Amino acid sequence: MKGVGFIGLGNMGGALASRLIGKVPLTVYDLNSELAMSWDKPEITVAKDLRELSRKCEIVLLCLPTSQDVSGVLIESNGISSSLRAGSLIIDMTTGDPGVTRNLSKCVSSFDISFIDAPVSGGPRGAREGSIAILVGGSKVEFKRAEKILRFISSNVIHAGSVGAGHSAKLGNNLLNLICRMGTYEVVSMLVKEGIKPSDAVSIIQKSSGRNYATEITLPDNILSGKMHQGFSTSLMEKDSSLALQMGASNDMEMALGTVANVLLERTIARYGRDADMSSVANLFEVETGARIRP
Ligand code: NAD
Known about the structure:
By secondary structure, the protein is an alpha/beta fold.
């Protein structure tokens, strides 16, 4: 197989890239050189800069915080579009902005480079287990071309539509995740005040018709366990919910539930900061309701 590059080795990118070790000739890069050097193993090349990565690879995956970061890596000065070989394929696994993604796709096509979006849902745990959902936006031909490598990462690869559709679907999903999450904290806090133990409240809902990702994974794994670390920052969730609300507005929709959930997220950020883990939403509910959910 041709050289495969992975740019962005953070909480999510690192978990995704680890699925490719030993399966493809892998070159990795991260702006954080200390983090990048922790990937220095016999079957992996750690590129010293983007130019070295682009010389070695014809398929490049990225998982960066925002579409602006992707844009910087691809097309700003020293961007890799000008140093990648013609015919290369870029797979953007960032949770990005569909509008920026469509523009980027046009822009790199002038270098004869293909671009698809392939954001993921299922957290670092789903990535490590190989079950994470990968939502792909791109033509059928490009989807086929990317499918083999994406299936090394997960068995759960879904073609959402043309370029940008993966990002639209992912933003919609994350807004729904936020709505369900906030709704779950609200109801669990109320049940705790009614005298039910937090773990019982969560498992009762999980076995009943209110079940959702928060009752199945988020609360049991991160809050009830006392771990208080999901590996997903409040600022990244806020990027996703804000982009999703903009997408709703551009389709003339009120987005009443999404707006309320986003207000609760903003309150979490005001109290715990933009670098806080999403688990800090539990602290917010405890402070605001007086019901203790953590052990
Ligand atoms: P993170 O902050 O943990 O990691 C981002 C990494 O990108 C960092 O290591 C940083 O050094 C690197 N980086 C930033 N700019 C760079 C550049 N110009 N060149 C090279 N490296 C650069 O973020 P994350 O949690 O891994 O999230 C990455 C993307 O995945 C985001 O778009 C996020 O919304 C999405 N996502 C995250 C999760 C999750 O649970 N963490 C789940 C689904 C989707």
